[in-house]
């Protein structure tokens, strides 16, 4: 136990050190760029002229790669007011995240509703497995964004199209894993259920489902990871709201500090989602 | 005359037509009788047991239980599987409750729990009732499997080499326990084993099965070569078994069969 704690402590220290090195490099890199972009050597008249020409030297510095201080300011301003709403192009990062998470939850939830029962049927029926396998194999490798034009054309609603894209990308890992997990349920457990004359529904819910749950959860975890990757790209395409749209909007504003902040937020939220599914997975895993 | 509990008539199983693994297997089981089957691997004894359990179908013959033809699995026949076949995500209590609930779906929780605890106690595992199978030793897991099969109070119990994976010491203990429970509950048992001493200790009758083989006169399917009635007194114990008169004659007879006759030449 103390050895494990010792290792944990050392790993934590090393992580902190790596973070410090990265921040140090960032500081050094932006400090020199700030020096070249400074207005040193220009007379006030030259500066004013440059400003009138739309080439404000100090503004160039502000729009370039942010320094650590600017980054901290941006982060603080977002974190202190995450839920403000000043119209379509100026919403707090919390609101944008909520839009993205809502889309992911809807698309992912719908995919669950389709993939788990369908995976059950495919896993239990070798005939259906063979019949549907070619379709799954062809549809699975399609980039979800490739569906976007078709979705926009048929659904005619950008938000629903985004949800559809999440749905279509989440469905495959869950479907394939559920089918595999169900097909791999040990014969002896099914034999136990058979000799006890267990009804098909009870067998499905109390024997096959818990037996296949770890595999199904693995599929869900993979799906959630993919959905979170795809939602950012999808929102860049369809726009209006969401963390992906926020990134694209701030790129158009040339506000790199906002972009960097959003990128970090996307990473942290993705990690939290994965952690949550990891917990869930642990809860249903059994030692055989 | 009373009808036998179980009647097996000319049972046969062929995976390849004209070359059945076994054929013409006929025997009867009376209520309260303990019958063991001994034979080499591949003679089809597990198939016979699976047919009796309703998990497999024979290609020929019939099985009657209380004069009615048997179709498919039934709660009237409890099975103890070769591997314990416990569900690892359930505790001992939940595993047995699963079986009891299947047998008596209308029982209230208290009655169900009472039945579960009674049978867990019967195999001496009350202290481990809320543990998961992964926390139990091999012998304890097999005890739970036995308790599960007994808990539904079937008319007949089918055991497929239940102690095959256990070490000799544990096996001996559980054999004693099984014998005590069977004597107490008057259970009818059909059991497969590889162990000659186990068969002599437990069985009232021992069915010796031979493997199918090519002979000069053509293919000869496997089947019951001989039925040995155990002449030893029923109140025998494992500790004194080998001191009983007739023990060695019986043992030598079965071993001779396994060595020289079980695999037809």
TrEMBL record, chain A:
One Gene Ontology cellular component: plasma membrane
GO biological process per UniProt: alkanesulfonate transmembrane transport; monoatomic ion transport
Main location: membrane
Keyword presence, Hydrolase: no
Keywords: Cell inner membrane, Cell membrane, Ion transport, Membrane, Transmembrane, Transmembrane helix, Transport
Lineage: superkingdom: Bacteria
Membrane topology: Multi-pass membrane protein
NCBIfam families found in the cross-reference section: ntrB
Name the UniProt record assigns to this protein: Nitrate ABC transporter permease
Species: Malikia spinosa
UniProt gene name: ntrB
